[in-house]
Amino acid sequence: MTWPLTCGWGLCIATALSLGIAPQAAAAPEVENHRIRGWTLAAENCSQCHAIGKGAGADVFAGPSFTAVAAMPSTTGMALNVFLQSHHQRMPSVRLDRDEMDAVIDYILSLKRAEPSGR
Length: 119
Prior knowledge:
64% of the residues lie in helices and 0% in strands. It has helices spanning 2-45, 66-71, 77-85, 98-114.
């Protein structure tokens, strides 16, 4: 009689583990799509003044590159959120809805995480 109970617990544990792992695996493409949307929005709204990708020459732009912004120690999601909602003299007002702003922020923060850790 102990065997079915043990087997039942094992099944419960296996099910719980599989349910815990499945949402994370399913969320990865959604997160990546959100970052791609952020890159697309940045290309449409920011690329006239900022180098938005890795490898673009920063010397020809009026504003800092997104990789330079991402590399700043002060760059956090909250800091970018405040910055993007504030008016800046040399930066035109770009109106993004909440999801668009979050997507651009996610894209910029992904550039921070993409940097090699040995720097």
